[in-house]
Here is the input.
Amino acid sequence: MNIPLRNPNLVMKLSRLGSFHQSKLSFLRSFLKEFKDWHYKRDLFELNEYGYGTAVYSFKKKNRVYSLICFANELDENERSDRVIATKWDTAFTLFDGVPAKQDIERLKNEVPKQEFGRLSYKELTLSRANKSVRVFNHVVESLSNGIQPDRELLAKVGYLYRTTAVYGSGKFGLADRFRIKNREEIYGPFRLEMMLVYLVRQFTFDQVNHVAKNKNPKKAVNLDPEICKSLGIGNSTGLGMAPFIVNHPTLLNNWIYAREISLKKIREIRNVNSQESNLFKDCLKKSIKNITSWNTESEYQIEKIKSLLKDLNQFILFLDSEFDFDQDYPFNEIYQYLEKNFGEECIEYVVSMMMEPYDSIVAPLIKKMSSEEDKYFNIPTERTVLELKTILENKYSEILNIDFTKKENNLNFWFISKNKEEPRLANRFDEDGSDLEQPLAIARDIKKLYETLSVSKNSSTIAKFLTSNSDLRHVVRRAFIVEKFPYSEIQDNTIGQEIVPIDMLRLKLSFFGALKFDPRSDKWLRICMFQGAPLPEQLKNYDEYWIYN
Amino acid sequence: MRSLSEIDTVSKRSSRAAGYSWGIAEEVGKNIRLLEIFSLPGIKNLNDFLNKKKDIKLENLSLITEQNHANNSQYCPIVAGVSFLDQVGALVNLNEIKFTNMSYPMLFLPFVSRASEIIGRRILLKIDEKEFLMNFNNNINSNFFSKEIIRTAKNVSINILDNEDSFNENEWKELYKLSEETFVEENESLKKSGAGAGLTDND
Here is the structure.
């Protein structure tokens, strides 16, 4: 049976992309799998009694070493802010390529805490900072120093001791460019070094809290129970900075979605599913419900989505247990069709993620293909004709071509880069100044304009000729030829309309990171938790791959 | 040291700010990155050009021909470069393409380098007395090692070179003969058991 890939007009809609969940393809899970055999070590831990100072953690295999350098500084209560406009944080981190010399640590001590205003070098790979959840951190210190374990309920509610507010890589602020490291096999999956940083930061937060508690009451203090540590992750506050990323990296976006779609297609094409596979699928699905019931948010928007997801999933599980027969041919195809017919997008995509769990043989080879050599596709094939380009637009952007951008509601917003923090922002073009400096992120509108211009051009003209008088459309001409080759490289939606929910764009990216418990704090930023439930570094060698559901 | 990613981003944004379309600004970002990879003064030239651009009488060269003369003005290196890159497929059969009066020709150079990769041919670019041999965008051989800003060039010429060996047949034969010394002579029985042995070739 040949199941076609899902139509990009279905998958690449923002509401669908904003309903994606973590899966076996997610970067934090593939990171753990890749690094489970590496030698983990805490190389340096020089903190004072209050937990301020420097620490270094490393992963090593043969001659390759990655070292996380942590700087913990005292921070005034009034200076603590998760917003991107903050200039000071409780902790700052960089992932160093190799073993840092003393001079490196001294140099970085001055630069890393400054974050965007510091200068890094090609020796550093990623950069981040994190703030304490003060309430939780203090509670844990207080409890441990009194010889007791902290309140698990409080910890479960928050889910972390620290949350990061940005993780930078790929040449930002002088960090190593990707070309320097791209041939290393261990980092073939996207964002692997960013995942490593966050994972090691998580361990630092446990070591720091133990250290502070011990210093507070050396005689009585106990360490945080490793089981509690496992149940904690690292929080993250994420704003609009992530949204343009998925527009600006079309081939990378394609490769992420394509891996997911190929997985789904191959799983639907499995004729006979054995009981081990069907049981694993059902087991993961049922256990995962706890990740939904423990999903706390004050966002009405998200509460409604969670409610509906939970209702759909319970109904689906009932169907699986009471009606569904895995002995029939192509059972996962049957399941998928049933889902599309009966449930909402959030539930469909949730179950799609679950379907991958029994099929390591399908998913694992795809993980290595999720990076992209974007420069390969940068040149425009200018020998092609106007007619060919028009046909591409008609085939690949059929629904976008129906949007009427003369209507105010379809052209309401514009994306810009803020001057004070060089971060992407979204604003109403009719209320705010600055739309003349709009970023090229209104792809749907510009594609429509390209189509209209092509329609009054000579069909046999080459693109080279067309561009001599239409240079303002060059950026979308480039994209259209990319979309021709990469079906999932474009969001098939209007990114400047009245209806846009920017956090859908964030959720897409974060789901591929492997984040859980999306907690929208507005329509423009959200909090998430990463590595909650993940094995600790010392436990990696024999870890349970399905930890996320345990 | 600035990373290539920073160089690309800042070059792109500044080009947009100077009035180029986003699509052209993207090209400039990639180009300046390329110049800096090849240790050529990309940022220096772009910065100077964009700052002085308003005071230069620039001409946009949209359609490249064999002879391109900017008489009372100078060709914009970015627009001329984009045109060359886009039209190179149609220009490969010209012996020589000449430009007179080009502003900041160093900014034109990376377009030519990228064109060399696209057509799979080496290209010799002459900027007055300076010569640059573009090798498929993998590297550039040049007699120009200065980090100076070149504000204008009277004569710029492009020769798209035929794909030819850089050695003569004798030199090749000599070297091949030496390489044969790694081979082992097969005896009759080995020849008989080689691929296809025992089968008729006329089946």
